[in-house]
Amino acid sequence: MKKCYFMNKIFGGLLTFFSISMAMASTASPLWTFVPLTDTTLTIIGNSKQTVKYTVTNQSKRTHSLVMTPIPGISQITSPGYCPNVFTLGYKQSCILGLYVDGSELKSNIVSGPQVCQRGNGLQCYQPSEENSLNIKNIQSLCDTNLCTEKLSIFSGEQSTFDNYFTIVNGYHVGTQEYQEYLPKNITFIPKNTESPAFIKLSAIPSADFPCIGRGYVDPNNRAIVSTGTCTYTSGAFYSYRKGFYVNKDSQGKTINHGGIEIRLRIEKEDPNLTMDQLYQKGAWPAVWMMSPYIDDTFRFNSETFIPKNLWPSAMEIDILELINGGWTATTPIIGSIHYGYLANETATSWNYINNIGDYDRQILPLYPVADSSNWHNYGFTWERKDGVSLTSYVLSWYYDGIKYTSLTITRKKSETTGNMIFSAEREVNGEQQLIWCTSSSPRCCTVESNRCNLVLNVPMPLTEAEVMFDSLTHGFDNGYYLNVNLAAGGEGIGVYDPSIPGFPPPSFGRANMQISHINRFVIK
């Protein structure tokens, strides 16, 4: 018994010594080594793609057949000039290990590797030193750049989640003279398959001419009356208002002072002869935006009585995403906007907007992301309100695949000397400060600062644009913001003007659809 115990102790000790020795040898003198030929610390944003290269050299006097351990989201480049899937190296022989990093396939950050093993022996493996190993940060969501503490999935591709928060529109949006009627039959739910996640599809479909109020004009003296125009499309839209879901309110109705919302979508066209840019130039107008119940309902439902509230945009409209191409640039920019104003008289409001397609901002379009709308991307928006004794501020920010591209800070501060309220607004695009201005396409900014107003005012004229912004946003924020998602066809909002015909040209892009795979709401610390 003692003899067996003694032999086991010797065997165990030898085994431990052998394992430690092998580990030390492996660490001290790897049998094959890695020398980086490119940067190995990368930030992959959204669906972007990059290539990483290493020279792999066999330092052993024995010939080895080697294979790379698979890494999700990274594929090995095996074209001529690179190491094949199985590569055999003699003493001091080398080959270039090429790695193709695909952001659309990455599931998480990568902080090690690549690992290359002896073929058939998963225990004999080596990888680059710590400083030369892969260090890939994958930014897809606004929560990769903000500290999100709570996530609410309000849509995950399935109708079961959709019905809890959204209502499909059966009717029209009025005010921008669009050419479509929104119908439930133009919305379908597509199950998950090997090529894509589950998603909801909003289809814009050409139609024979039919009378519609979407192309009509609202009577300013009685907004329940809308003149009739002619539509040429049907399409799809949904929104969260009728289910009582407000983006900036929790389930108890309490205001979320710091939060965000993100939607993942892509656009599909049917006409192979059109580019995506031409699709928008010909009138396709996808939009994700927020409105407040403080003002008139976004949509007019068929066979329902319209109930007026306050006039748009006395509560600020916030556009998370619009894809618009007015023909002034070869590519389509990603657009985030606000529209704001105040009640000037019983039938009219002032109006101004800030986005990247107004007359001034066309000069700084290179600062904005270019749309890659045929592929899946995340479009996000965050808000933060801080209330103090003498200062209240809002920070609004827009995101593309988790990266902030523009922000707006609006502040109200009590003067220490006069006690008056002082308003200010600062705007940043891609890290650069930009002007706050009254767009030349709006004759009704109606502030002392803008010195432009074609309205009869029944109220004192505000001093600054910042004051109007602040009050308009506060109306919306306090009453809540609901979410709208729609695919419009044409209309005055798309910014495409043809001087050879009156007004804006009718849409002529054929069929197209808007696909949404998820919508998430976040609370941010």
CATH architecture of the largest domain: Sandwich
Question: Mean of the pLDDT scores?
Answer: 91
Residue runs with pLDDT of under 50 for 5 or more positions: 1-7, 14-26
* Number of structural domains: 2
- The end-to-end distance, rounded to whole angstroms, is 65 Å
Rg from Cα: 29 Å
Family: Belongs to the glycosyl hydrolase 16 family.
Protein name: NHL repeat protein
Signal peptide: 1-28
Keywords: Signal
Structure description:
Keywords: Signal. This is NHL repeat protein. Belongs to the glycosyl hydrolase 16 family. The chain is mostly beta strands. The protein folds into 2 domains: 30-139, Immunoglobulins (Immunoglobulin-like), CATH 2.60.40; 142-524, Jelly Rolls (Sandwich), CATH 2.60.120.200. It is 10% helix and 40% strand. It is elongated and about 90 Å long. The N and C termini lie far apart (65 Å). The model is unreliable at 1-7 and 14-26 (pLDDT under 50).
Summary keywords:
Jelly Rolls, Immunoglobulin-like, elongated, single chain, 4 helices, mainly beta, 10% helix, 525 residues, 2 domains, disordered N terminus
Could you give a quick summary of the protein structure above?
The protein has 525 residues and is mainly beta.
